[in-house]
Amino acid sequence: MQRRGGTIGHTEPNLSLCDGWSELLGVEGFSTPLNLKLLDVAHAITEWQATLTRWGNRASWQPRLNAVEERLVSAAFGGKSIEDAIRKEQDRLIAELNRLRAGETIVNESECGAGGYVDVNFRTEPPNGRVSIISEFDYELCKLAGGENDPQRCRAWRVAKSKEAVSGYYYIRVDWSGRSEGPHRYELTTDDRTVWLRYP
Question: What is the pTM of this model?
């Protein structure tokens, strides 16, 4: 898959969601039910926007995503089940965008609970690139404060070992002498594989 000059094994755009931010952050006992719902709405919109940014022209999906956000916020304030509302809007958004044929077929293939961490080997082309990674969750937390792409301000960035135990979505940056690429978002869920980060 071509990503701003870099390549990695091809995957279809996937709008699947697992746990919402309210559960990941563990704030159930420290916030109101409405704020928890709004936090999960923010999670869904952020995830979908990140995927759709790579999928096709923003003009084809941004108005639809804005409408989804408005309906989900309305559902939250209306006291409805936000999990059900998100699933309904997810199916609706996928159907609408696939009808446009503006990009690859969008899927909803959940790997939630698919099982723990996996071992991934990073290799770069050109060789000898320094690979830095950060989990998507930590990246989004750093984004709230700004400086998410600056390892000096966002301390969750780390230099990857030759073999890393990972699970889920990560942002990856590669640095060579006088050149950098990324960060780009990747899904790392396939066990015992080599991930080639190619930047011609």
Answer: 0.56
